[in-house]
Amino acid sequence: MTIWESIDQAPVSLKHWLVGLLPAAVQWLASIMISGVAIIAVFATLFAVAVLLERKGLGRMQNRYGPNRVGPWGLLQPVADGIKMLIKEDIVPHQADKVLHLLAPVLLVAPALLAFSVLPMGRGLTAIDFDLGLLLFFAIGASTELSVFMAGWGSHNKYSMLGSLRAIAQMISYELPLILAAVPVVLLTGTLSTDQIVAAQGSMFWQWHICTPWGAFAFVTFLVCALAESNRSPFDLPEAESELIAGHLTEYSGFKYALFFMAEYFGMMAISGLAITLFLGGWQAPLPSLSFVPGWFWFFAKLLVLIWIFIWVRATLPRLRADQLMDLAWKFFLPLALLNLVVAAICAKTPAWIGWPAALVLLVPSVFGLGRLLRGTRPRGGKRIYQYAE
Amino acid sequence: MNSEPAKLENAPLAKPYELRPKALADGGQPGELLEISMGPQHPSTHGVFRMDVVLDGERVVKLKPVFGYLHRNHEKIGENTTYLGSMPYTDRLDYFCSLTSNWAYALAVEKLAGLQAPERAEYIRVITAELTRLQNHISLVGFLLQDMGASGTPLMYAFREREKILDLFESLTGARMMCNYMRFGGVRCDATADWISRVLTLVDNYPRFLDEYEALLTSNEIVVARTQGVGVLSKELAISAGITGPCLRASGVGYDVRKVDHYSIYDRFPFRVPVGEHGDCYDRYMLRILEARESVKILHQAVREIPGGDFIDPKVRAKGFKAKPGEAYGRIEAPKGELGFYLISTGGASPYRYRVRPPSLINLTVLEDMCLGHTVADAIAIFGSIDIVLGEVDR
Amino acid sequence: MLGTGILKGLAQTALNLVGTFRKPAERLVTVQYPEQKITLKENFRTIPFLVYDGDDPEKGLRCTACKICEKECPPQCILIEPLRDANGKLAKHPKVFDVDLAICMNCGICAEVCPFDSIKMDSVYEITADDRFAGLIHHKEQLSKSNEYYHSIKPTEATEVDGRLAEEQRKADESAKAKAAKAAAAAKAPAMKPAAAPTPESPAP
């Protein structure tokens, strides 16, 4: 094995060596646990990196330094934040349901971590390699909505309850376009296994699914729905401070709040990971000549790029109102995702020189049409011209 | 003085203000109403301000603004302080635009005493007032976007530009915000040629910043979706409620005190007054950007044409200033609307009655009418677009 | 196209991000206090201080305790008690001069109305104290600062004030000399009358 290949396979080799140290009877358990611990360690570090990246990036985009007092360039800021969250007083409302109040953040973080297990992070680096990976991912993702409801209900606060209901409505509405955006990929690769989806995309970047018309639209839909699923701007109505109804997070403090925060970032990273798997070729390099660089490097590089795009969008856009958010999901993204599915089917069955023009002819006008439909439901749309008096 | 209170024999009984209506305006029965107080501590109210909102589902059914948390007895203090001593207090009325508040007060006193400022002082006054207008309008847009959830980015850009203007104020008057600069018959100290050239540099760079700001916001679909059609103020209601300033002009009425009163030397500047059409939040936002562009034009011309001469009427003594008996109302086009000072003098060192006409308070009276039927998030956007400073509302 | 507005907005934020690295003077305007401090403009005014000429804060103090600043101060934060000599006559010097910084609103009216150019506005802003009430009252000793200090913080203003005071002193000296000459001439003429030697009043310091 060359040096590059050994770096590429280093995590796998390490795991095999560790498992080999233990007696054969518990090796199956050790294998799973080592994978789990590795995922938690890696993604907790990535969480710290993402938090720092967000604060520094947001700061720079707003023409200011981000945190730069704690450690050089603020590198120890996540540590400081972690210590702060740990030593804060854990306030539980007097009449709250204590079990639910405790379980909600835990049951939000656990599925997010579980979702990482089906993502192929490198050559042979999928924690659980089985045939229904995509389905498992979406099933786990849907279970997070229950935790949001538990958070709202367990707080024994009228406004938290209403806020959590709004958050759930948002998340459920955006599940549909999310899944429908992923279905064309399944259609064209014929498999639900994430490993095989990555393998089905070629090793050159123009063979990735994003470089097809249906893939591009599906990718954009997927990203926007990912923003909505993880309650990030411009869909962060549940967490908004300036909204009246406070959201399901009101009654949480200290480490439980940190867990919610972590769950949001883990969700963001998990969905970005899935977007990479489905549309961006997974752990593959853009060009075969660069494939000596380890696969996990490409995966995490692409993940950081997507996280950066999320941060960028957060810095730029104001929040959408609740009903506008729902309108967008049901009246724009859902029809678009369905149409995308039809277009993908057409592309699958016809050669490229028919399929691609047909796709563009079908998709582009419908985007405009649906957009016009959305705007039309508002009283005064359209461009404006201002007069001057005298 | 009458020692017993007047007897109101046939005065009509005042109807108690009903916060929870028994029937809606369109005759329907309201469902389960939710009464919420958007309390004085709130991240989106521009100061300590409370709104008692009654919601039917998500729609606002009734809205009662409650203010007074920042009342500081400005008018009563004005009755007990000398004319000069009231000038620093006017800084603190609309603390964002202290120089225009100073100017309105100086104008009122000058009308009372029959003074006239020399030409150079007038030019300096116009320059400082238009600079104030620039920094107020972009800050307002920044705050509006902040309330709508834009995580502070437009606000930071606005404040970056505002800092440059505040630096200019500091060089000229000695303080960034509480300027205390206008005096009766002129200004407190002269503006150096170096300062004038710095104003020119700022004004030359300003349109580029406004272009960047507009590129970020004006055609942004989310901003458009949140502000168009929201908080419509009809022309008739605006005129009858006494709304002034950009809110009035956004509703289609081309009324600008600078053009109507011809005060100071504004007649020498050919600037246009932008007028909106629909009267919603988007119009109010766009109008401020357009007005900022017009102010840039005024500044260019003023900086070029400023003459030499006295910066204050040499015969005026601010220290022992006593006004002749009489009354005067001095008003200017402050960035928020028509700011007026009404002074009644009985010949002493302090006025007998000192009344401020705050544009923010008058503009706030139509908040309920604008918010009815909208959701709570819209109410916040509408409130932000009226441009309120609580210092002025509560005095 | 639907979404161009959002793309334009994203371009603006990216422009600002890149701008903080390439042109920090224009985009990244943060001053890292307390390691860096903003250079203050000359006109910057915070709390008042008393100017004294020469080296001795007591003898060189320009203030004559005329109490005009105390009267004109809008929030009335100045307390002055004039010094009286053995006969109870006013000695044109303050015994007590207190400024309550918790009340002072930095308006500068005291400096504007002082006829003797003795109270001026300082530029210090790091004036924290441990005690909220007594610690924020600055007495005469704390408030007295030399004319050199005044020159160091506000050179143009100080030079102008010095020039004006020197001019006034010169005029006062000249008029005193003229009066003395006239009195001497008048004393010489009627030799019978006891010549009361008029002592020229030296102008107030």
What's the average pLDDT of chain B? 86
Mean pLDDT of chain A comes to 85
Give the termini distance of chain B in whole angstroms: 28 Å
Indicate the low-confidence ranges of chain B by residue numbers.
Answer: 1-5
Explain this structure:
- The complex is a heterotrimer of chains A (390), B (395) and C (205).
- In chain A, 66% of the residues lie in helices and 1% in strands.
- By secondary structure, chain A is mainly alpha-helical.
- Chain B is α+β, with helices and mostly antiparallel strands and 395 residues long.
- In chain B, helix 6 packs antiparallel against helix 11.
- Chain B contains 15 helices and nine strands.
- A three-stranded antiparallel β-sheet of chain B has the order 1-2-3.
- Chain C has a domain at 48-163: 2-Layer Sandwich (Alpha-Beta Plaits).
- Chain C has helices spanning 4-22, 24-27, 68-72, 109-113, 140-143, 147-153, 155-188, and strands spanning 48-52, 78-84, 90-100, 119-121, 137-138, 144-146.
- The chains are: A mainly alpha (390), B alpha+beta (395), C alpha+beta (205).
- At the A-B interface, helix 11, helix 12 and strand 1 of A face helix 4, helix 5, helix 7, strand 6 and helix 11 of B.
Q: Notable features of this structure?
A:
heterotrimer; A: 390 residues; mainly alpha; 2 domains; 13 helices; C: 205 residues; alpha+beta; Alpha-Beta Plaits; 3-stranded mixed beta sheet; 38% helix; disordered C terminus
Question: What's the helix and strand layout?
Answer:
The complex is a heterotrimer of chains A (390), B (395) and C (205).
Chain A: H1 3-8, H2 10-20, H3 27-61, H4 77-87, H5 98-115, H6 133-154, H7 158-189, H8 194-200, H9 213-229, H10 255-279, H11 295-316, H12 322-349, H13 352-376, E1 387-389
Helix pairs in contact in A: 2-3, 3-10, 3-11, 4-10, 5-6, 5-10, 6-7, 7-9, 7-12, 9-10, 9-12, 10-11, 12-13
Chain B: E1 33-38, E2 50-56, E3 59-66, H1 74-80, H2 83-91, H3 98-113, H4 119-147, H5 153-173, E4 182-183, E5 186-187, H6 193-217, H7 221-227, H8 235-241, H9 246-250, H10 257-261, E6 273-275, H11 281-305, E7 326-334, E8 337-345, E9 353-357, H12 359-364, H13 367-371, H14 376-386, H15 390-394
Antiparallel strand pairs in B: 1-2, 2-3, 4-5, 7-8, 8-9
Helix pairs in contact in B: 2-3, 3-4, 4-5, 4-11, 4-14, 5-6, 6-11
Chain C: H1 4-22, H2 24-27, E1 48-52, H3 68-72, E2 78-84, E3 90-100, H4 109-113, E4 119-121, E5 137-138, H5 140-143, E6 144-146, H6 147-153, H7 155-188
Parallel strand pairs in C: 1-6
Antiparallel strand pairs in C: 1-4, 2-3, 3-5
